[in-house]
Amino acid sequence: MCEETCAGCSLVISISAVPTCAHLIVVPRTAAAGSLEDITAALDESLVTINTVLGSRFCAHIRSDVENYQKRLMLLSETLDEWLNCQKQWMYLEAILFADDIKRDLPEVRHRQQ
Questions:
Q1: pTM, 2 dp
Q2: What string of H, E and C letters represents the secondary structure of the chain?
């Protein structure tokens, strides 16, 4: 089960793997959105479990459900990777864009940032 709730500027993502459940709370404009170690560990464990189930000859009657779940987990994994890359790039650009010399040299940028 995967559920999402959005309240204001917060986003809570719940990953329910077979034995685990992890939560990620994202707060805008912070350097670290929270520790993703628990999320990635649960995600990796879930992918290993799903791959083990897919390798079993006894999953023939639920194979389509298991493959669907595997695709969803892979999409979540790729999304988290892209999200982390985007966050790293933004943190790099934020330091440049909000520097005092840039604000002084480009007053129109300063007005857009406020």
A1: 0.60
A2: CEEEEEECCEEEEEEECCCCEEEEEECCCCCCCCCCHHHHHHHHHHHHHHHHHHHCHHHHHHHHHHHHHHHHHHHHHHHHHHHHHHHHHHHHHHHHHCCHHHHHHCHHHHHHHC
Question: What is the Cα–Cα distance from 22 to 20, expressed in whole angstroms?
Answer: 7
Top pLDDT among 85 and 8 is at: 85
Both tokens of 36, joined, read 């993703």
Q: Which domain holds residue 38?
A: 2-113
Q: Which amino acid is at 11?
A: L
Q: Is the pLDDT of residue 2 over 60?
A: no
Q: How many domains does the chain have?
A: 1
On whether the CB atoms of residues 1 and 17 are closer than 8 A, the answer is no
